[in-house]
Amino acid sequence: MMQQTTGMPRLHKVIFLVLLAFLIALPFFVYPVFAMKVMCFALFAAAFNLLLGFGGLLSFGHAAYFGGASYVAAHAAKVWGLTPELSVLAGTAAAAVLGLLIGSLAIRRQGIYFAMVTLAFAQMVYFLALQLPFTGGEDGIQSVPRGDLFGLISLQNNMALYFFVLAVTFGGILFLYRVVHSPFGQVLKAIRENEPRAISLGYDVNRYKLTVFVLSATFAGMAGAMKSQVFQLASLTDVHWGMSGEVVLMTLLGGMGTVFGPLAGAAIIVTMQNYLATFGAWVTIIQGVIFVIGVLLFREGIVGVISRWIRRPL
Amino acid sequence: MIRTLALGTALGALTAGAAMAQDMDVKLGVLNDRSGVYADLSGEGSVVAARMAIEDFGAADKGMNVEIISADHQNKPDVGSNIARQWYDEEGVNAILDVPTSSVALAVADITAQKNGVMINSGAGSTELTQGQCRPTTIHWTYDTAALANGTGGAMTKAGGEKWFFLTADYAFGHSLEENTTTVVQENGGEVVGQVDVPFPAMDFSSFLLQAQGSGADVIGLANAGGDTVNAIKQASEFGITQAGQKLAALLFFVTDVHALGAETAQGLSLTEAFYWDFDDTTREWSARFEEIHGAKPTMVQAGVYSGTMAYLQAVEAVGSAEDGEAIAAQMKTMEIDDPLFGAVTVRGDGRAIHDMHLFEVKSPDQSTGEWDLYTHISTIGGEEAFLPMLDECDFTK
Amino acid sequence: MFDLLGISPQVLMGQLLLGLINGSFYAVLSLGLAVIFGLLNIINFAHGALYMMGAFVAWMLLSYLGVGYWWALILSPLIVGVFGIVLERTMLSRLYKLDHLYGLLLTFGLALIIQGLFRNYYGISGLPYQIPEALSGGQNLGFMFLPNYRAWVVAASAVVCFGTWFMIEKTRLGAYLRAATENPVLVGAFGINVPLMIMLTYGFGVALAGFAGVLAAPIYSVNPNMGADLIIVVFAVVVIGGMGSIMGAILTGYVLGLVEGLTRVFYPEGSAVVIFVIMAIVLLIKPEGLFGKAA
């Protein structure tokens, strides 16, 4: 395991390259907006997985950062007239600040209580999103302009936007990968496995926990900010607790604590929601069935199972 | 682009030797709530209504190959806008129908304008669709909050309900409904003595109802929708508020809601609708056909999908192609429509369909002769009076 | 007449009473959740769905079989309880050795399925259920009109809550139950059938949800979504009271009903969020909850 800190294992490198090639080709085969949605959620799930899978902390309120950032980014683009990359940065920064505020309170608690504190704060963020004048209540912030990237490249075109989203989300995911496989990531794992021992080794556990919390919130925010640019919309859906549940579902289905699991989970769930939309109420039922089967039979998640078959960490 | 070839129809037409002016494909998307609070009043029923319209229009005989797809927007603007975008970009949809829930409707209106489609909205209530956020490709067919406020608010104030207290669902829709009604109440010489913002959605209204009771208002205006309104009415009757003489005004209420509530609890309630199945012979006949397929009587939203689709197809026929949404919307704005369900309809320059609205009162159980015999017709409000005046900058015919 | 912040004492009394009525629902529901969490270590996210199911079963009994309210009050919780036992035997029992997280996720999935099915078959508008003849009408208390049915809700909930508390804290059966929570292996070694006890406890916990559903049916419309958002609130109640604490869940249920009632007078917009604010504060100051034992 230790050699992972020195560089990316060959297998991971290959997968990332194949994935990148696949993603570059993808918009020529499927609907680009759909593909962008998948990528945003993949980043969201990866950010969440950093906290749950590697930090061992279950947050039930990640919608707050995802949705909060999407509101800020939408507002930045629409009202302040910022360019897309600056809007996304503004949203991401807002999520980081929010993560720092909530995280510094939440990390004082463990286990199920930690989950509940994050849920409580997320509900408050939801309340603010409903009440604050700039969020537009249940209409959300609509008609967010797709501006010009760096003031130069128009993102009106789906393809141009697609490659912007690809660059940001892929970069984000690679960064998260680096974090996990850095010395910092190793300490995180140590804390997750045995916190008292990590403390006795002289690590300032709380600082590590807070850092990972803020990182996770930041990248969840980046995903939300991107989503608001893609859909030209920030809405209450993104801050609702259902969204917090959805990201847990994605991570769990794909395989928590794996590198590629959250990406697979996000892709599956988003695809399912997209193609089953015509079935109406059956979507929730099918989603429920996946939850149940996943928990009962595939707790390691899809990628987790594959990883066990090939006996390599994925 | 996925395009279904109308080979079958075209060949059939050729061999039949009928003189066809044009052979064209039209694809309609019914985008509405199929699982949430508006599923019963729009949902599958709206798809049924759209199918009936295509059939009654005689699309096949006219050489038009009309296809329908449908999806659930779950009342979420992001889901709705995603589907709408995909429909226009990928499925080659020409027009989107129904779209209840104002937040979703506004999002879809925007995309429709970008993609040069047409949105014929029947389900949503926001006046914004043809006012602040008007688009050349939006047609708002059935009702809006201003029309409801005018109907119910105006009639009740004139009938002596001068002091109003609002229970307002605490979101943009609720506030706009309250605002619209307040204007109407004040114009008719009434006053608003208080209001309370109720978190949405809510189950228990007793606390808010008691505040309304204490205010000494004549009328309690329910500026909410769906399950919230049902619960508020139910609990008002439970707490003896209606029995004590205060009147309830349900500002957005549909025949399916009354049906769910039962005549026992809902009796005496005033409400405004654009359509009621038991209005005349034509509506009765049409509604019977609808019921046979769908299993329930149509709501005004479903009836609006039927009429709107009919008018849209006529416009497409006149234009000769379904490709240019703006041209079709413009065409619709020039037509004098004599609709079997809504009577005379004209579409204004801003996309607002102008037709009569009707004030109804819910029958008491002993007046009601059947499960769906629910309303007594009180009065008719002319279209010009019912809807807000057109904003100059929204007149796209200029 | 003195006014408190512009609210007359009469109105305040009325609002407090209404808060108590809502608190009665919270108490019964959070009690069920607490009982289940105490013994099974499972956060039963399906609780809201089962509450909804209780109301629906009452409605079905009446519509299809002509069975009235009073029988439904007994039969519906029984049916929901048996349904819960089936879920426990076939699914939940496989998760006891795992992290709490999995129980929560499983029941979350179950809730989606149950709600989705009811939505598919019964639509969303809700179905009417009348208040039973014997409890219609109401009393004029001077400061407010109290419907008899609401008074009955408070009484029924108080009796059920007290009964449950008594059974768990004061009887032999309850003692086994508490012992099994502490150390299931040891209790099993004493010849007590722990899996059976766990099964019945889950059945009982969800039967309480079903009972609350029947109580709610005549007040709220019987609607597939009636439990969807409630579960989050009840959840918060249990956390504030202290996970697994029976008395804590009951008392917190009532108290938070009152607090929420007051919020509805002074800051109605905030009444949906006040419970979460309290939850955050409590968890930060006293993480084990108001009545929980320090871990």
From TrEMBL, chain A:
Membrane topology: Multi-pass membrane protein
Domain of life, per lineage: Bacteria
Transmembrane segments: 14-34, 41-66, 86-105, 112-129, 159-180, 247-269, 275-298
One Pfam family it belongs to: BPD_transp_2
Keyword terms: Cell membrane, Membrane, Transmembrane, Transmembrane helix
GO terms of molecular function: branched-chain amino acid transmembrane transporter activity
Annotated Gene Ontology cellular component terms: plasma membrane
Entry keyword annotation includes Glycoprotein: no
Coiled-coil boundaries: none
Localization per record: Cell membrane
Keyword Transmembrane in annotation: yes
Main location class: membrane
Protein's UniProt name: Leucine/isoleucine/valine transporter permease subunit
UniProt organism field: Jannaschia rubra
TrEMBL record, chain B:
Superkingdom of origin organism: Bacteria
Signal sequence region: 1-21
Leucine-binding protein domain sequence ranges: 26-363
Alphabetized UniProt keyword annotations: Amino-acid transport, Signal, Transport
InterPro entries from the UniProt entry: BCAA_transport, Leu-bd, Peripla_BP_I
GO biological process: amino acid transport
Family statement: Belongs to the leucine-binding protein family.
PANTHER family cross-referenced by the UniProt entry: LEUCINE-SPECIFIC-BINDING PROTEIN, PERIPLASMIC BINDING PROTEIN OF ABC TRANSPORTER FOR NATURAL AMINO ACIDS
Protein name listed in UniProt: Leucine ABC transporter subunit substrate-binding protein LivK
From TrEMBL, chain C:
Entry GO terms, CC: plasma membrane
CDD domains linked to this entry: TM_PBP1_LivH_like (cd06582)
Highest taxon of the lineage: Bacteria
Pfam families: BPD_transp_2
GO molecular function: transmembrane transporter activity
InterPro entries referenced in this protein's UniProt entry, alphabetically: ABC_transp_permease (IPR001851), BCAA_transport_permease (IPR052157)
Membrane topology note: Multi-pass membrane protein
Localization (cell): Cell membrane
Regions that span the bilayer: 12-35, 42-62, 68-87, 99-118, 149-168, 200-220, 232-259, 265-285
ATP-binding found in the keyword field: no
Keyword annotations from UniProtKB, A to Z: Amino-acid transport, Cell membrane, Membrane, Transmembrane, Transmembrane helix, Transport
GO biological process: amino acid transport
Family that this chain belongs to: Belongs to the binding-protein-dependent transport system permease family. LivHM subfamily.
Protein name, per record: LIV-I protein H
Taxonomic source organism: Jannaschia rubra
Name of the gene this protein is made from: livH_4
